[in-house]
Amino acid sequence: MAGDTENIPEMKNIKNIDVAFLPMNLPYTMTPEMAADAAKMINPKILYPYHYGETDTSKLVALLKGTPEIEIRIRNMK
Asked: Is pTM, for the whole model, over 0.85?
């Protein structure tokens, strides 16, 4: 699980991730574009965006459409 972070270059060193939790909500965490970039770097089998508040999660899904190896799971937390 990533804390309040961004898609930093060091994420490229993370390997063999089964499940990733990436925060996605400005101004403290990532935009959908940044979260998609981070997901592509770490390539988890399953991705849960969290801490997304009012951020449109469909943007993340659209950005990762070309990466079928990453299963995106969205949970309605309201």
From this structure: yes
